[in-house]
Amino acid sequence: MYVVVNAAMSADGKLASRRRKQLAISGPDDFDRVDQLRADSDAVMVGVGTVLADDPSLTVKDEARNAERRDRGLAENPARVVADSRIRTPPDAAVLDDAAETYLLTSEAAPTDFIEQMEEAGAYVLAAGEDRVDLKTALAKLEGEGVDRLMVEGGGELIFGLFEAGLVDELRVYVGAKVLGGRDAPTLADGDGFVESFPELTLESVEQVDDGVLLTWTVQNS
Ligand SMILES: NC(=O)C1=CN([C@@H]2O[C@H](COP(=O)(O)OP(=O)(O)OC[C@H]3O[C@@H](n4cnc5c(N)ncnc54)[C@H](OP(=O)(O)O)[C@@H]3O)[C@@H](O)[C@H]2O)C=CC1
Ligand SMILES: Nc1nc(O)c(N)c(N[C@@H]2O[C@H](COP(=O)(O)O)[C@@H](O)[C@H]2O)n1
């Protein structure tokens, strides 16, 4: 599986303000680039923190791209994936609508009645890990479901978890022309943070998009 993390951050490294609600950092050209990246992916993943904060749909917005996927014999939209150890995803979340397939990655700690509720809502529930989603095992299970190219949109807790597990192949960061500040505002990689051994990145390209910059890095996983 090839894992691309794509996120937009402010010039000071924040994914959103301290209110932790969806905030447009990308401009129109960058949102269009993200739409193409979604269309080129088998699945689009977020953490449950993003579902609770943003209620995203994670679908491809450009109808020409939906049609192009259909022509390739694919579903109109890539699958959606949510890392959600104990099932905090609300039953009426947009990611559970019928626009695309949805996988919920959970742990053994997920209550049985919540699992049933999610399955009734049409989601595929994949358990990996005791208390928290074991991302390595979960992504291997997803690969078994045919997900070869996974796009991860965030947020910072999940992105850190994926780096910590050595699962990220490519990082695309859009740096937008905003300063958000706030010590409690989410950053590109939160979690516990690294203190000794840090993921090594190789810069592949730098491109101006809208009034910001798109940085593309590959990750040196051992
Ligand atoms: N600008 C941008 O491009 C983007 C911005 N955002 C913003 O980010 C914020 C949300 O980010 P954040 O709060 O960090 O939430 P995340 O979306 O990163 O979700 C974090 C949650 O994922 C669950 N999870 C399950 N397994 C793991 C694991 N192994 N490692 C890490 N997390 C795991 C945890 O909940 P549990 O333990 O219950 O499973 C955790 O609390 C919002 O403000 C949103 O608007 C989000 C995406 C993109
Ligand atoms: N690429 C990008 N730029 C921004 O400025 C953003 N705020 C985000 N947010 C991500 O997009 C999700 C919303 O998707 P839908 O429009 O609902 O399909 C949001 O949840 C973040 O993951 N991304």
Summarize the structure.
The chain has 222 residues and is of the alpha/beta class. Helices cover 25% and strands 26% of the residues. Bound molecules: NADPH dihydro-nicotinamide-adenine-dinucleotide phosphate and ligand LIKH6CAM.
Give the SSE layout.
Layout: E1 2-9, H1 28-39, E2 43-47, H2 48-54, H3 63-71, E3 79-83, E4 102-106, H4 112-120, E5 124-127, H5 135-144, E6 149-154, H6 156-164, E7 170-175, E8 200-209, E9 212-220
Parallel strand pairs: 1-6, 1-7, 2-3, 2-6, 3-4, 4-5
Antiparallel strand pairs: 7-9, 8-9
The structure holds NADPH dihydro-nicotinamide-adenine-dinucleotide phosphate (NDP) and the ligand Nc1nc(O)c(N)c(N[C@@H]2O[C@H](COP(=O)(O)O)[C@@H](O)[C@H]2O)n1.
Ligand LIKH6CAM binds at residues 8, 22-26, 34, 46, 50, 54, 56-59, 153-154.
GO molecular function: oxidoreductase activity
InterPro entries: DHFR-like_dom_sf (IPR024072), Rib_reduct_arc (IPR006401), RibD_C (IPR011549), RibDG_C (IPR002734), Riboflavin_Biosynth_HTPR (IPR050765)
Keywords: NADP, Oxidoreductase, Riboflavin biosynthesis
Description:
- The protein is of the alpha/beta class and 222 residues long.
- It has one domain: Dihydrofolate Reductase, subunit A (3-Layer(aba) Sandwich), CATH 3.40.430.
- The protein is 25% helix and 26% strand.
- It contains six helices and nine strands.
- Strands 5-4-3-2-6-1-7-9-8 form a nine-stranded mixed β-sheet, sandwiched between helices.
Q: Tell me the number of strands.
A: 9
Number of domains: 1
Question: What does the average pLDDT come to?
Answer: 97
Write down the CATH topology.
Dihydrofolate Reductase, subunit A
If strands are numbered along the chain, what order do they take across the biggest sheet? 5-4-3-2-6-1-7-9-8
Beta-strand content bin? 25-35%
Helix content: 25-40%
The CATH class name reads: Alpha Beta
For CATH, the homologous superfamily is named as Dihydrofolate Reductase, subunit A
Distance between the termini: 15 Å
Unreliable residue runs: none
- Determine Rg (CA atoms, Å): 17 Å
Summing up helix and strand content along with how strands pair, one would put the structural category as alpha/beta
> What hetero molecules are bound to the protein chains?
NADPH dihydro-nicotinamide-adenine-dinucleotide phosphate, the ligand Nc1nc(O)c(N)c(N[C@@H]2O[C@H](COP(=O)(O)O)[C@@H](O)[C@H]2O)n1
Figure out the total of helices: 6
SSE ordering: EHEHHEEHEHEHEEE
Under the CATH scheme, the architecture is 3-Layer(aba) Sandwich
Question: Biggest β-sheet, characterized?
Answer: 9 strands, mixed
Apparent shape: globular
